[in-house]
C-alpha cells in the first residue's frame, strides 16, 4: 500500500522549487533608499578607443578599477573588465556599460555578482520604467533582476543616472532555481521559436553575427538537443497529445504568468511582438523550460510603432509567427489559466495608486542627480522639466502617454477584455527521480477548486487505482493555506517499479480531470554500473594530468556485458539528475573508470562540472529509462579525512568501508579498511524535542527548515542543541536518510 507521509528534505527543496521559485532580496549592491556612486577608472586612451564609431559593437573588455561608494560603504575592486553593452543603445549618446568582475580573475566577484549591467535608459525620459517593471515581476514571484539607481562616474567625470540591473547568468539562475547546471539560452531578435527541423545544429543560426539562441551555460558541450526537442513539440500543434507533451518540456503556467506581465507592461520588445529579449532555462529539477523576461526599458508607454499598447487586446498579443504564444493560447484551458493570472495580477500587483506612489518615491530619490545628468539630453532632448513631469505627462514623440495614464488605461482595458474564466489546473511533478527513501511529493496548481484529489496506480497493476486527498491547509508542504497550491506526499513501498498518477479537481460541484499522466520510478535500475570508490578531499594522494589534486570517484561495471555510459549522469544533488553527462564511451565488463570531480569541464571529458564537500555530501549515478531519470546508484558520506576514500569492500559489493590505502582505477579487494561507514539501525530521540536531541551514535548531518534553508550543520556529535529553534516541523538529514523532527 501507499501511505501519506511527511516529505523529505531533498524532496522538499525540489517540490518548493517547482511550486515557487526562489526570490532574491536586495543587498548592498542594490540599494533602494540611497543613490550609490560607481566610479570607473581606466586608461584615457582605452576609453577613447571604446567610444570610436568603428568599435561600438566590439565586446572587447578594457582593464579598469571599480569603486562603489555609499553611506557607510567604500569598496574598491581592481582589475575588472569594462565595455559597452546593448544593441541599438551602443549608438546612443548616453551609452550603457557592462562591468565584469571576473574577466581577468576568474575567482573575483563583488557582493555575489560576477557582472553588473549599467543601463543608460536613454529611451526613457523618466528613467523609472524598467525598474518599476522589474519590481512588479518580483512582487509576482517571477524571476526578476535586482535593480538600483546609481550615479556613474568614468575617470571622475559624471556620466549621469544609470540603472544597475542584475546580469542574468549562472549565478542569477542558481539564486532563483537552486541549480544552474541546465542550458540557459539568451534569445535575441529573430528568435521566434519556429521549427527548423530536428537537427540541433539548425538552431545555432547567426543572421546578425551572433547566435539568436545563444547558449550561455554548458558552452563547452554546445548541445542544442533540448532546444530542438522543445521547438519541435511546440510546433506540433495538431498532435492530439500536444498538451501533455508541451507540459513535459515547458512550465506552461510560468510562461502564462510572464505573458500577463509582458502585456501589462506594454513590453512590445519581447517575444510575442518583436521576437526578442527573453531567456529560456532548462531546469534540471523538472526537465522543463522556463521563460524569463529581460530588457524592460521599452515599456509603460514607450512606443516606436505608433501602436496603442495600453488598449491592445490581451488575447491577441502577437505579431507574425510566434509559435509559443499561438500554440499555448489556442487551447481553451490555457486561455482560462491566462485569464486567471491576469485577473490576479490586476487585483494584487498592477495597482495604479500603489505603483504611482512607488514611482514618485523613486523619482524623488534620483532627482538631484537626474537634474545634473547632461547625458539624458543627448538622444531625444529630454530636459529637466520633462523628467519632473514624466510620471504624469506624455513627452511626445516615442512617448505618447505618461506612465500614470498608461497604467490606468492598460488596467481598465484589460479588465474590460477579460473573458469568462473556467480555469483548469496542471500537475507539477516535485520529483522524477527514484531515491532510497522512496518519498516524493506532487504539487497541483488550481484556480477556484474546492477539492483536489491525486489518483495513482502501479504500471504493473493499472486496474487498481488509489486516491489521496491533496491538501491546501498551510500545515503541510503547500506552505500557505488557501492559495493556488495543493500537495500530496507519498511514501512508496515495493509494489512496483513505476508509479503513474494524475489529479482531478472539483469546481462548483463538478469534477474536472487533468488527463496527462505522470510517471516516477520507485526503484533503482538493475544496470550493473556502480559507484565503487570516492575521495572527496584529495590533498596530495593522486594528481590528474594537469598536476592538480582534485576530488575523484571511481565507477565499476559489475556485470558480464559492456555498458555504454554516454547516456548516464553523475550529480551531487538528487534534484539535478543530469548535472554532468558521462563521457561517450563503453565500459567493459569488470572495468574501472576514474573521474575527476573538480568543477573544471574545460580540462577534458573526464572532469565533471562539480566538486564534493568532504565534510558531508552525496554522489548519485542516474540513467534514463522510459524517458525518465532513474537512479542507478547513490552514496552519502559524512566528514572524510583528506587523502582517504570510501569504497565498497568488494568491487560492486554492498558493504562500504573507509580505506586506509585508496585504490583508484583498481580493485578494492584485499585492501585494509579503517571502519564501517554505514549507519545501521540509527536512531534519534526524543521526537518531539524541546532542547537537546540525542543520537544513537556519533554522526554528521544538517537540520533544514520546511522552506529548504539550512539552519544547523553538525559533525561527529551525539547531541544537538535545538533550543533556539521556533516551534514547528524541521527536517533532519543524516547521510542518505532524512527524518521529520517536531520542535515542541
Q: What is the share of helical residues?
A: 10-25%
- What is the helix tally? 13
Shape: globular
Strand order of the largest sheet: 2-3-4-5-6-8-7
The major pleated sheet works out as: 7 strands, mixed, barrel
Mean pLDDT: 87
Pick out the low-confidence regions: 1-20, 429-437, 675-680
Descriptive account of the structure:
- With 744 residues, the protein is of the alpha+beta class.
- It has a seven-stranded mixed beta barrel. A six-stranded antiparallel β-sheet has the order 26-21-20-29-30-31, with no helix packed on it. Strands 32, 33, 34, 35 and 36 form a five-stranded antiparallel β-sheet that branches.
- α5 packs antiparallel against α6 and α7 crosses α10 (332-348).
- It is globular and about 85 Å long.
- The two termini are 31 Å apart.
- Mean pLDDT is 87; it is low at 1-20, 429-437 and 675-680.
Question: What's the gist of this structure?
Answer:
With 744 residues, this protein is an alpha+beta fold. 18% of the residues lie in helices and 31% in strands. Among the domains are: 3-20 and 424-521, Immunoglobulin-like (Sandwich), CATH 2.60.40.10; 181-330, no CATH class; 529-676, Immunoglobulin-like, CATH 2.60.40; 684-743.
List keywords for this structure.
Immunoglobulin-like, disordered N terminus, globular, six-stranded antiparallel sheet, 36 strands, seven-stranded mixed β-barrel, alpha+beta, 18% helix, single chain, 744 residues
